[in-house]
Specification:
Blueprint lengths: L5 H4 L9 E8 L4 H15 L6 E6 L7 E3 L3 H4 L5 E6 L6 H5 L4 E6 L13 H17 L6 E3 L2 H9 L5 E3 L15 H7 L4 E6 L8 H14 L4 E6 L7 H13 L4 E5 L3 H9 L1 E6 L8 H8 L4 E4 L4 H5 L4 E3 L4 H12 L2 H16 L3 H17 L15 E4 L10 H12 E2 L1 E6 L11 E5 L2 E6 L17 H9 L4 E3 L5 H10 L3 E6 L7 H7 L3 E4 L4 H12 L6 E2 L1
Parallel strand pairs: 1-2, 1-4, 2-3, 4-5, 5-6, 6-7, 8-9, 8-11, 9-10, 11-12, 12-13, 14-16, 14-19, 16-18, 19-20, 20-21
Antiparallel strand pairs: 15-22, 17-18
Helix pairs in contact: 6-17, 7-10, 8-9, 8-13, 16-20, 17-18, 18-19
Length: about 550
């Protein structure tokens, strides 16, 4: 648990009103649980009565929690509640009938697609969690997220008064002496590549294994891969990992499973480099832990990973195993570069000093602590505007689908153009207004870095998907077979249209089932006839004035 600096425990108590927290499950050592317990100590130190309400909890948390079902009858109109959301809870009806003020703390939800093919129940739970995120919106007066990436999704979902909270890390918890037996085993002259975390599909441990295999075979034959964290080989993904390990034939691959604090210290103490290929992180504590322990960090720059790293380490724009392996080799062969990285990483950790974090948390929570906020009235200004969704427009404005989207925007009035931001900045929150081909477009952060090759499939975007789901406008997906269209169509199919290139492969069955006759086939390489055909087809919408 994160320790509270003494100087912050009694800082400026604004009142004695109760500020409670609500979490579906309280687990010891879990990232969400750590933040919940940290906030409780801060709130109590500021003079507030503060309890944690949960539906489930670990035995080790028994004395810290009250049953969630008790909150509606224990709360009153003067009560205030911080709701933590990261996974399906099925508790929204209970929260809706509870009296008092409420606010949301969002830890992010992994996109369901990242579990498809391996964990069907988890994928469905992730989808349900996003439905709950929308259902919670009218219940709260403000919201926070632990990264700008996550805050962007809340803004897109229409949440009021969205801001960021700094993530509190208990650095002293890492100061554990290494297990001598494991340290001696790993400290044998091999270059150790380390990953720490649960072996689940979204973490892409399979890609870590692919990168390691390439690195071992092409650059560093005396190397070892160490994976520390929960791994169940009886699950489809666990079986897949062990099968992939045998197929690739890499040597010295060790899946340690769950480890003790001392064993984890041994892993970091003997690591040459830390590698993460995770596809989605709302915040990545192991990245910072590796930085704290002086291990160079290389991570695929998906979701909130670049924010977590804060300009230190290397956030790659590619997940291609050969390219990442080449990067690891360059780092190993340049000790000066490695030292420069470690120095920058230590500076990043220093910026998350406990005193500074506690002060920033206090400042962020202050508006909720002192009293109710006015909730903005949602605007219907955009509800009647046709929305053109072209994910690659900003990155590849000369691609056939982009040129078609731009020409169509010139002929449709009014309309909006939505796209993915090819160079999102971790210090800015989307949507960001850009001009492409003379047209104003709104650009949202992608869940993963965009490929430099226009022919490659573009990534999805949690925030853009949420903006489309909460919009009331007619939508035109261009093209209709994008990953963004596939993720969004199940939720918006009644007001969605799609465009496909007649020369492209047949659209996925899901697209056909959701769009039917509203899937329009045109020749992307003949823009003028295509635009005329689309204008004619869109006239029945009645939501636009085509010229």
């Amino acid at each position: 648990m994160v320790k509270i600096p003494k100087s912050r425990r009694t800082a400026r108590p604004s009142s004695s009103r109760a500020i409670h927290q609500f979490v579906p499950r309280l687990a010891w050592g879990d990232a969400v649980g750590n933040q919940v317990r940290y906030l409780r100590e801060l709130l109590r130190g500021w003079g507030h009565a503060s309890e944690i309400y949960a539906e489930q909890w670990d035995e080790s948390c028994q004395g810290l929690v009250r049953p969630a079902r008790d909150y509606p009858r224990e709360a009153d109109d003067s009560s205030a509640l911080l709701i933590h959301h990261s996974f399906e809870s099925r508790l929204v009806p209970l929260l809706a009938r509870a009296p008092g003020r409420k606010a949301l703390i969002y830890h992010n939800i992994t996109p369901a697609r990242l579990f498809e093919g391996f964990e069907h129940k988890v994928a469905r739970a992730c989808e349900a969690a996003r439905e709950e995120l929308l259902a919670l919106r009218p219940l709260v007066e403000r919201a926070w997220a632990y990264s700008r990436f996550s805050a962007e999704e809340l803004v897109a979902a229409g949440y009021p008064h969205v801001s960021e909270l700094p993530f509190a890390v208990d650095w002293s918890a890492f100061d554990v002496a290494p297990d001598p037996v494991l340290r001696a085993e790993l400290d044998d002259g091999c270059a150790n590549l380390l990953f720490v975390g649960r072996a689940v599909p979204s973490k892409r441990v399979d890609d870590v294994l692919r990168v390691f295999t390439a690195w071992q075979r092409l650059y560093q034959p005396r190397s070892r891969l160490v994976v520390a964290g929960y791994l169940n080989r009886e699950t489809p993904y666990g079986a897949y990992l062990y099968g992939l390990k045998e197929m690739l034939g890499a040597e010295r691959v060790q899946f340690l499973g769950r480890v003790s604090a001392a064993q984890l210290s041994a892993c970091y103490a003997t690591a040459s480099v830390y590698l993460s290929m995770s596809r989605h992180e709302g915040f990545g504590v192991p990245l910072l832990e590796a930085m704290y322990r002086g291990v160079p960090v290389v991570a695929y720059g998906a979701a909130a990973v670049p924010e977590t790293m804060g300009g230190a380490g290397v956030a790659t724009l590619t997940n291609e195993p050969l390219e990442v392996a080449r990067l690891l080799a360059a780092l190993e062969r340049n000790p000066a570069l490695e030292q420069e990285m470690v120095t920058a990483q230590r500076a990043r950790v220093a910026r998350l000093d406990q005193e500074a974090v506690a002060a920033a948390v206090r400042e962020a929570l202050e508006p909720f602590l002192v009293g109710p906020s006015s909730t903005p009235t949602p605007s219907d200004e955009e509800s009647a505007r046709v929305t053109l969704v072209c994910p690659g427009l900003a990155a590849f404005p000369d691609a056939p689908d982009s040129r078609l989207a731009l020409r169509l925007a010139e002929r449709l009035s009014p309309c909006r153009l939505l796209t993915l931001d090819p160079s999102p900045l971790p210090t800015q929150r989307a949507p960001r207004t850009q001009r492409v081909g003379g047209q104003e477009v709104l650009a949202f952060s992608p869940d993963e870095p965009l490929s430099r090759e226009p022919a490659r499939q573009l990534p999805g975007s949690s925030s853009l998907e949420m903006a489309l789901r909460t919009s009331h406008a007619p939508l035109l997906f261009l093209p209709s077979d994008s990953l963004l269209a596939r993720d969004t169509l199940p939720h918006v199919s009644s007001r969605a249209w799609g465009v496909r290139d007649v020369k492209a492969a047949a659209p996925p069955p899901g697209v056909m089932s959701h769009l039917g006759s509203r899937l329009l086939s045109v020749d992307f390489h003949q823009p003028e006839p295509a635009v005329s055909a689309l204008i004619q087809a869109l006239r029945p919408l009645g939501a636009s004035r085509a010229s």
